[in-house]
Each structure stands twice: as C-alpha cells, then as structure tokens.
Amino acid sequence: MSAAILDGRVFAAEIARELGEHATARQTELGYTPTLAIVVVRDQIGDSASDVYVRQLRRTARQVGLNSRLVELSTRSTPTDVLDAIARLNDEPAVHGIIVQLPLPPHLGRDLLLDAIAPEKDVDGIGATNAGNLFLNLPAKVPATCAAVMELLDRTAVVLDGRRVVIVGASAVVGRPLALMLLRRDATVSVCHIYTQDLPTFTRQADVLIAAAGVPRLIRAEMVQPGAVVIDVGINVLADGRVVGDVDFEPVCSVAGAITPVPGGVGPLTNLMVMRQTLERITA
To answer: Going from the N-terminus, what domains does the chain have, and what CATH number goes with each?
Structure first.
C-alpha cells in the first residue's frame, strides 16, 4: 500500500482564491478594506520563528486582499501599555482581527492580554471566551491550526461521524480544541498525552490519527492502522536543519491510506484560516 499524499499547498491555492473573492465582495459592501492587526512586543526585527511568522501572516493578508497592521511595542512596555493598545484596536471599526504575537516577555501576563482581545476579533481563537464557547458548542473563533486540520479533512471528504479519531498531543492550542471540534462532527475522539500508557494501543485503533505532540517521528509504521488517515501537525527542526513532522513519514506511507507531508501539509492552510476568521468578523 502507498498512501495518498494530502498536499496542503493545492488546497491552499484554492482557499486563497476563494478568500480573495470574498474579500473583494466585502470591501465593496463596506467601503473599506478590513484590517488584521498584529501586536508584537520586541525591541528589534530579527529572524526568529516569531518574526518569520509575522512576515508570513502579512504576506498572506496581502495575497487575499486584506490590510495588515503591525503594532510594535517595546519589551519595556508594561501590561497597561499593551492593554491600552489592544483596547484601541478593539474600538477601531476597520480592525476586524487582532493577534498578540507569542511568546511575550515574562513580565507581561499572557492570559491577561489574550483575554483583553474582543472575542469577535480574536481571530486566533485562543482567548477564554472563544475557548468557552467552543466547549459549550456555541459559535466561536477557533485556533488556526485546528481550523486548518478540519478544512483539510473536509476538502478530502474524510468521513468523521462515527469514526474513531485519536489525537496525540493535548495542548491548549491544538489537541484539546481540536478534540472538541471533532466531537461536534460526531467523531469518537481519544486524546493521548505524555502520561498515556501504551500509546500504540490507542493509535492502532484510529481511523483518523492526528499527531500534534511536537516530537520528531514519534508515530512509527507499526503504530498505524492499515488504511488510516494520518494528519501530521508537528513541525520539528533537526540538528542538521531538516524539518520533519511527528510522523515517520516514509515508513508510515506504506501503511496509511492517506497522509499529510511536513512541510506542505497542514501548514499552508493555517495562516489562511486566520484570514478567513478575519473576514468572518466583517459580518459579525
């Protein structure tokens, strides 16, 4: 068996075109271009993973026809300084989405700042209000990576209702919210984590296996049910500079029915989900 490769770049091109058309229509209705505001606390621009991500976000915004604004604050800023900046963005009608870029300096309260974003503008879906709404099965903005996984599953017509889905990784930004989103779709969901005993026993039961643990090549071929759909969310940089996922890709390809590559699987869709949720704010 050779697994079908779920190429996120193909889907990303389709989604970008759809979002561009949506953005053009909304701009005509509104009379202005909606803006995604990115709050960054730093003293200089560099090549850190955070800086690279911010540049990618702004490039994706331009690609689909949205404005982006970088709100830069010094690392000497107090929590009040950052809260004031967020409050101004909350009150600005043209700003439809706000992201506070992580990580933050230790003296700034992460949860305090994230929860200060107006829920309807929390386009990365990590504030407490959106997390609570997701738990209660109410309308919610959701973490972009989770939205990307669901989009990929939908676009490849993977059946979820009644299927066994196993998520390896229980983070607050992927594993746990993704489990709730899958429950909404009537999947039977198990979430495994660092304390899970005999992990292969769980993973071999999965019709859909989602790896989001942040451990290079954690999922081996013998841990996968033949014909399973394998979604690799992990992005790990090895000592030699190679980027690999949480799945041992080539051996698992011989067992799985379908699999996402790393890079080129879930990643290309993630920033587009931020843009989609920014556009959704237009109608809120």
So the answer is: 30-119 (3.40.50.10860), 143-266 (3.40.50.720)
